[in-house]
Design a protein that fits this description.
Layout lengths: L1 H10 L5 H16 L3 H18 L2 H17 L3 H11 L9 H19 L2 H17 L4 H16 L3 H9 L8 H5 L1
């Protein structure tokens, strides 16, 4: 029951890898039940215990799932931090660019809500850098659309047009940028 799950989560940092998998499973169950505070606690415990043991194989999914739950609950700053922590863990994962994009996307939500122009400028530079670093990835295309939209909202039409012109005919964002 609930008490047993809490006890297991609380003891996760001192147990074997098998128990970490159980803690992840319990946190997944709590997520499906929409019991987000318990899910977050479970993912945090699993992530910390896996990190303590140097077990990136379990730290990566715990960190990503934590980020997903935080994003779903509107905790964008924490979600961005969690997903950003997953990026270096996923060096061999073909989805690593997706994780980097999700960290940026969550940070975009925070910056947009804050109205901080300095942070907005920094984020714009990071979006452009992301586009240039991974030009053929669909995530780069998403970053381009986000950056162009931000430029248009800021009244910077010429820069937005330049961003639009960077889209190649095979770019997934081509239609969204030119219509």
């Amino acid at each position: 029951g609930r008490r047993a799950a809490r006890t297991l989560v609380a003891k996760a940092s001192g147990q074997s890898t098998g128990n970490l998998e159980v803690v992840l499973s319990v946190a997944d169950e709590r997520t499906l039940q929409r019991r987000f505070p318990e899910a977050i606690q479970g993912y945090q415990a699993a992530m910390a215990a896996a990190r303590e043991r140097g077990n990136a194989k379990l730290e990566l999914p715990a960190t990503l799932r934590l980020g997903a739950v935080l994003q779903a609950t509107g905790e964008y700053a924490q979600a961005s931090e969690a997903v950003a922590r997953a990026v270096p863990l996923a060096v061999q994962d073909p989805e690593q660019p997706r994780y980097a994009w999700l960290a940026l996307w969550n940070r975009m939500q925070v910056v947009d809500a804050s109205g901080d122009t300095e942070a907005a400028g920094q984020l714009e530079r990071e979006l452009l850098e992301f586009e240039e670093r991974l030009p053929k990835r669909p995530e780069s295309s998403e970053a381009r659309v986000a950056r162009v939209a931000r430029l248009l909202r800021a009244g910077r039409s010429l820069e937005a047009l330049e961003g639009t012109l960077k889209a190649t005919p095979t770019d997934p964002a081509q239609e969204r940028l030119t219509s």
